[in-house]
Structures are given as structure tokens and as C-alpha cells.
Amino acid sequence: MDPMLQVQDLSVHYKTRRGFVRALEELRLDAIQGETVGVVGETGSGKSTLGKAILGILPAGTQVDGKILFRGRDLTQLSNQMYRRLRGEEIALIFQDPMTRLNPLMTIMDHFVEEIRDHESVSADEARRRAREALVSMGIHESRIKNYPHEFSGGMRQRIMIALAIVLKPSLLIADEPTTSLDVIVESQILGILQDLKRAYSMSLLLITHNLGIVAEVCDRVAVLYAGKLVELGPVRDIFRKPLHPYTQGLLSSIIHLETKELHSIEGSPPNMIAPPSGCRFHPRCPYAQSICVERLPPLVEFEPGHFAACHFGDKFL
Q1: Total tally of structural domains belonging to the chain
Q2: Structural domain containing residue 300
Q3: pLDDT of residue 181
Q4: What is the pLDDT of residue 298?
Q5: Any idea what DSSP says for residue 223?
């Protein structure tokens, strides 16, 4: 099956007074119809930048190289008007903080009607009907549709954001830290909703998160980013069973579970992205680093079918 989304050699550099922040470097990633791909990594690894690049909502002055193919169309070549039509209808984004994304001066009904009528030629009554259906599908009673954002809890606001994202039935849903700041019960409910939506609409889901527990629960494949580089990619089961990159190993060892007796962390801090380290960007923090890691950037190698890693010594972890 041909991928719905193909990210090819994508580089994103943010312009600052001190120089360009190399947020993403030559990233390659794809997703097929109905697949859930998790994108994980520490803060600053480039996860959210990837989502924004796909949606074309990067800040002005950002340098973007490479291709983002969606159903064969290169999104980096679209005009602003064509991109505007694409957002919502075919690709939608769930932001991590719904309170900052919902207009406090508009009712929930107003949000839905504005979005639906901006993309489709339907009456206000039809838009309101669809808005009620979308809200009810998220477990929120339709009587709440005339309330304002501040009248809802954090979990309910996130449900509203999901309803806004899927009301036009997009093919690709990008969820950027959708459960941040939610308690574990609400988090489980949100994840269940996303899984149900994916099955109901055959959507592809790009789940951006730092929570590996979520990845294990809902994703088919996982892409591990470090300092703007893809360091490991493969099926969730393979990566959790046999991680081939030391960074992935560090992330997995830091997971807290019922058998945890002591806390583990990755020593050091992420690098300065204006002047990242030579060679492998993880080498200053890697317990296995040797001279070749400092001198040469490791290529992304397929060590097992579908399981890729960018490590000079990945075969030693097989």
C-alpha cells in the first residue's frame, strides 16, 4: 500500500538573532492509510516542528527544504490559499493546550459553525446540526454547545478540540501532545476516543508525544527524534523489545512502572541547535560513544525488516 504521507529529507531551520536553529535535519518518515505513527523525543527534538511543517503553519522566515508529499502532492509547493483549503478538510491538528486555541469570546457553537462554513457551502442550520453531532460523539451533551470555553474542564476542552478537528472528516489527524496536563483517567478516555475515530473514519494518526506509555498502547510504529534527527524508526513491538539506538534505550529505561525501584535518566542535556555537535548528535551523552561517533554522522540503516536506526554500533544491540 502506498503511503498517504511521505516526508522526504525535510529540514526546518528557524531564523533567530543568534543564527538559524536547526530544528529538523533531513527527516524521512511516512504513514499509510489507517496507521498510527508515534513521534517521540525530549523537548526540543523537533516533534512539534514536524506537525507544524506538515500543516504549513511555521513562522515567517523559516527555511524549509525537502518534500512533504500528501497523496502525491508536495505540500511545500502549495499556495497559502490551497493550504488553507487543505487544513481541516484533509489534514487536521489537535493542539496540546486547548485553552489557548479556543477563542474565549466565542461560544463552542460559533467555533464549529465558522469552521464548517469556511470550508463547505452549507446553511447555518446544517452547520449547527453537524456541530451538535460532533460534540455528542465526544461524550458532551448538546445542551453545552452554547457555552464558552472557560465553562468547561480541561478534559472537556480537549474533547471539543478533537471534535473540531474531525468535524470535516480529514484523512490525516496530527495530535500534538493531546493528553498533556490531563489526569490518567481523562488521558485514557482521550486515547480511547482517538482510537475509535481512527477506526470509524479510517484516518491516519500522527501522535506527537513524550509519553512512551501512550505510544505502546495506541501506535503501530514509532519514530524517535533526537536534536532534529530521526534516530530510530520501526514497529512499536520491535522497538520496545529490542531498541537499537542508545537514546531510545535511555528513553525506555526512564519509564516508570509498577516494578520500578529506582529512577533512571539520560545524563546531560540536549545540544544547542544553533551549533549542534559534529557526527552523531547524541554522542556527548552516549555511554557507548567512540571517535567515529564524533567524526561521522551515522546513516539510517535497516537492521531488521522495517526497523531502522542511525547508530554506528546498532548491530551490537541485535
Answers
A1: 1
A2: 231-318
A3: 67
A4: 97
A5: E
